[in-house]
Amino acid sequence: MNPVEVVTNRTRAVRTAVLRVSAAPLVVRAGIFGTVLAGLLLAYPAQALTARPLAAFVLVSLLPAVGPRRVWPTFAALVTVGGWLLATEGYGRPIALWRLLAVAVALYLAHSLCALAALLPYDAVVDPELVVRWLTRAGGVLLASAVLGVLLVEVSDVGADRGFLALTVVGLLVAVVLSALLGWLLRRS
User: Fold this and answer.
1) Does any domain span residue 110?
2) Residue 72 and residue 66: Cα distance in Å, rounded?
3) What is the pLDDT of residue 4?
């Protein structure tokens, strides 16, 4: 094959793939882009939000939307956490519970949507109920986590000296119980 035929064949393949794209996988990938970008904007300090970093944030948000099966979701989560650390440690921004919960929600939703997008080919015909059920389940996890997190923060404020110790012990107990529950569910099925 000569180079012109190779380019022509690849162009036809790309055109065919673009014409076969369905709406549901694109909506899920747009959701990934939006949640990653929202997490980045919430995590980073306002002083760092200039034109060049915003362009980088758009690129970092686009990568997991395009390649949810690759390393890009982890990369985007690490960049978001790095922004949170930069804002709190580097710029001295006080830790606000609402912002912490919002960043955690964005990270979890991006992770969950990447898991869904990794299962959906671009040309998949998907019943909208599947996406709604997936998001409902994720919303339930987020609601339970937010309620538990707020309760644990309130418990930690009771004793100033021992608050963080109590919070750590409760967190470890929750992790052990959840691990045992997941192990039991895996053996059961």
Assistant:
1) yes
2) 9
3) 86
Residue 174 lies in a domain: no
SS3 per residue for 64-88: HHHCCCCCHHHHHHHHHHHHHHHHH
The gap from C-alpha 102 to its chain's centroid, in whole angstroms, comes to: 11
What is the rounded distance in angstroms from the CA atom of residue 137 to the CA atom of residue 115?
A: 13
The confidence score (pLDDT) of residue 58 equals 96
Residue 140: how many other CB atoms lie within 10 Å: 10
Q: Tell me how far CA of residue 81 lies from CA of 96, 112, 136, in angstroms.
A: 15, 17, 25
- CA–CA dist 3, 63 (Å, integer): 30
In whole angstroms, what is the distance from residue 96 CA to residue 44 CA?
Answer: 13
How far apart (Å, rounded) are the C-alpha atoms in residues 155 and 73?
Answer: 33
- Structural domain count of the chain: 1
Residue type, 87: A
- Asked, for residue 91, whether it belongs to a domain, the answer is yes
Instruction: Render pLDDT for 141-174 as a digit per residue (tens, 0 to 9).
Output: 898 888 887 877 776 665 555 556 666 777 778 8
Does 62 reside within a domain?
yes
More confident of the two residues 33 and 127: 33
DSSP 8-class letter at 157: T
Name the residue range of residue 22's domain: 3-127
